[in-house]
Structure formats: C-alpha cells, structure tokens
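Thread: IST1-like protein, structure

OP (GT): Posting the sequence first so everyone is looking at the same thing. Length is 314 residues per the record. Can we get the structure tokens written out before standup tomorrow? I want them in the notebook alongside the other entries.
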Amino acid sequence: MSLLNQLFNRGVFGSKCKTCLNLAISRIKLLQNKRDLQLKHMRKEIAQFLQAGQEAIARIRVEHVIREQNIRAAYEILELFCEFVLVRVPILESQKECPAELREAIASIIFAAPRCSEVPDLLQIKNLFAAKYGKEFNMAASELRPDSGVNRAIIERLSVRAPPAEARLKVLKEIAQEFSLEWDSSNTEAELGKKHEDLLGGSKEIMADAILPQAPTKQNSPLSPPSNGAHSTLNTDNKQGSHRLEAPALVSNMPRVNANEIEPSIRNYMADVQRETTSQSSDVLERARVAIASAERATIAARAAAELVNVQFG
C-alpha cells in the first residue's frame, strides 16, 4: 500500500511540477515582451528630459530604468532555470534528495518566487519543492544561508538597493548616444560624485561642536572632592545662601566639563544681571525725584495763591 502511495505521490508531483513550470515559462515570456516596450518608452522620456536640460528629473528616472533592466535580466535567468528543471522532472521524481546538478536552479527559483510577484506560478513551484525536500531546504534558499546554492546574478538583479552612481551615469550616456544627443555630462558627473552626509544620526559638525573639551581630573583620595572646580559656589547679592553644584557619584564615568571654562561665563552673566538691576533702580530713583520736585513746585504755587488771596481780601 505504501508503495502505491509513493508511486501516486510521485506522479502527482511530476504532473504538478511540469504544469507550473510550463505556466511560469509562458508568463515570463509575456512579461519580457511587455517590459521591453516599457523600457523603450522610459528611455525615450529620459532622452527628452536630457534634451530639455532637465537633468535632475533624468537622474531620478534612470534609477527606475535600471531597476526594470535588472528584473528583465533576472527573468531571463529564471526562464532558463525553469526549462532546465522541466527537462529533468523525471530525475526529481526518481530521487528523494535534490540532485547536485539541479540544486542551483531549484534554489534560485525558491529565492526568486516571493520577489517576483508578477509570476505567481513560481510560488506554487516553491511549495512543491518545500513539500518534497522539506522546510529547511526551502528556508536555506530563501534566507541565503551558506551553501544555499542560489545564483549570484539572481541575487544581484533582484536586490532592492539603489544603483550606484557609475551605473546611472553609464545608462544616461547610453541613452544619449542611442538618441544621438549632444549632451554634456559634466554637471551630472559632479552631482553624482557628491557624497551626501547621512543626517539620520545628526550632523557631524553639530555633534563635534556640542562636545566640550575635557580636562583631566586630579583626586587626592577616593573620598576627597575633586580639585578641578567641579564643586563651585555661587554667591548672590542678597546673601540668602549658597547653592552648591555637586556631581553625582553615579555619573563619574561621564565626561567632566572644566569649571574654569564655566566660571567666566557665570561671572559675566551675574555682572550683566547686576548692571541691569542697577540701571533699573537708578531709573526708579530718578522718576521719584522728578515726582517730588513736581510736588514741591505745586505746594509753593498753592501757598503763593493763598497769600495773594489773603492780601486782596484782608
């Protein structure tokens, strides 16, 4: 009974594998023709941008062209692998383990299946191989484990990384030559040659300016306070008390800031505050003096008016 099940399963695997491989090959050929037309149209648009002097747009569009070219090249390799496996399906049926000569083709199909959504037949082929050779074989190819056997060209063509500047410049020159354009590539070469700073971690200049110079600390004993002025006392004019700035013992490993660099700025700040306070006080006193003088003049005028009235009616 088990022998009949093995023969039945073997026949089912072979028929399903052949069907999926034939469908994948046919779909890949249709996609290749469609992608060729799209690439021609995209290259023509980039040539128009170059001719109009809109090089910034052309530099962006060329990345999409390179991406489509890489996918097309990957599909060509996958088509060859599918045809190669299709011819050797009887060998796969007769052997329990994956043959060494078919390992690269099968591993490449498994790796490319989830990355080529336009060819859903590859996912069915991947599931068939997973059922025959186990999940470990499938995971090794999908995760690019050592000795997985995945074709290197497939990995590079299906990569999601941005194309390098040299590749973009090369394609732009090829497009200009294809459409017989007199295009000066010096501006594009200079722009692509710039090294843009990664600002995700913050600007290096800002981070460098934020770091204060460190001063070596001298300690006489583990229990004695540091002698570099880390404990400083700020005396105010009102003599209400002193505020001691103490560094916590738990942050002794953090970089220390030299107190000699902080004290001048504190003195300058306190001097500015005193000058502002003095100027405000002098303004208030001056206004008070003016008010007193005005009141005295008003009093003298009232007395003179009263005396004048007494003289007239006395």
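GT: Both are above now. Quick notes for whoever picks this up: The chain is about 65% helix and 5% strand. The two ends are 151 Å apart (CA to CA).
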